[in-house]
Design goal:
Molybdenum transport system permease; MetI-like fold; 13 helices; transport; 0% strand; 266 residues
Length: 266
């Protein structure tokens, strides 16, 4: 049996050089953002009514999208992890498709499905008078569409790691499947749900392409922080940097909140 090597592991130069270049490639743009930030004017930039309006809308919509993802995504993750059915792999591929789908394509797909002349949207408007495109509700829908796969993947992975025998034991003692899920499974997978919810919230907060395509860019109604950054970049680059710093701070806070999860995987 070979004993594990102790002490520092020598790094071959052909691996070290591209690794350092890759690290610089990822870190340098963030450092440049900090270097070019208008620190003296930052308080005035961040206290403008437009910034607070966009920030408030972003927080509200991202939170609402996360709630939608939780209500729909947790049962979907349980279905994929616990139930054997024909085409489960294909369904899982469909669920993860928004992860690799260009966001603008996702926005166009939402318009085709939920627009006023969409496959479902035309019936929503004629039957219930509901029109989602270019509304705040449309922002929530667009963000939930791109964010829910993050939650589903996280929760499904946690469910697969959890021992299903606890659920089976609960059902043999007379509990229904739903009671076993609510009383036994949910407490077991709560850390995975929390991590998935944070990832979904962060993804929803940073969503741009699907939002601007499906909901538009109307200040106070659909203009979230990423859209405000894009608009400010065309007329006021310093304001765009200030807004970007807010989103960067939120991203760092998300990573800090999930540090235990990342450390446990290392």
């Amino acid at each position: 049996m070979i004993s594990p090597r102790r002490g520092p592991v020598p790094v071959p130069l052909p691996l070290l050089v591209p690794a350092l270049v890759g690290l610089a490639f990822l870190v340098l743009p963030l450092v440049a953002l900090l270097v070019r930030a208008p620190w003296s004017d930052l308080p005035d930039q961040l206290t403008s009514p437009e910034v607070w309006q966009a920030l408030r809308l972003s927080l509200v919509c991202a939170t609402a999208a996360t709630v939608v993802s939780l209500v729909l995504g947790v049962p979907l993750a349980w279905l994929l992890a616990r139930v054997e059915f024909p085409g489960r792999g294909f369904v899982r591929a469909l669920v993860t498709l928004p992860l690799v789908l260009p966001p603008v394509v996702g926005g166009v797909a939402l318009l085709m499905a939920l627009g006023r002349n969409g496959v479902v949207g035309q019936w929503l408007e004629s039957w219930f008078g509901i029109s989602l495109p270019f509304t705040t509700a449309g922002v929530v829908v667009a963000e939930a569409f791109v964010a829910m796969p993050f939650l589903v993947i996280s929760v499904e992975g946690t469910l697969r790691a959890a021992d299903p025998r606890y659920e089976e034991a609960a059902t043999t003692l007379g509990a229904s499947r739903f009671t076993a899920f609510r009383r036994v499974t949910l407490p077991l997978i709560a850390p995975g749900i929390a991590a998935g919810a944070v990832l979904a919230w962060a993804r929803a907060l940073g969503e741009f392409g699907a939002t601007i395509t499906f909901a538009g860019n109307f200040p106070g109604r659909t203009q979230t922080m990423p859209l405000a950054v894009y608009l400010a970049l065309q007329s006021d680059p310093e304001a765009a940097i200030a807004l970007s710093l807010v989103l960067l701070t939120v991203s760092i806070a998300v990573l800090a909140g999930l540090r235990d999860r990342w450390m446990s995987a290392s």
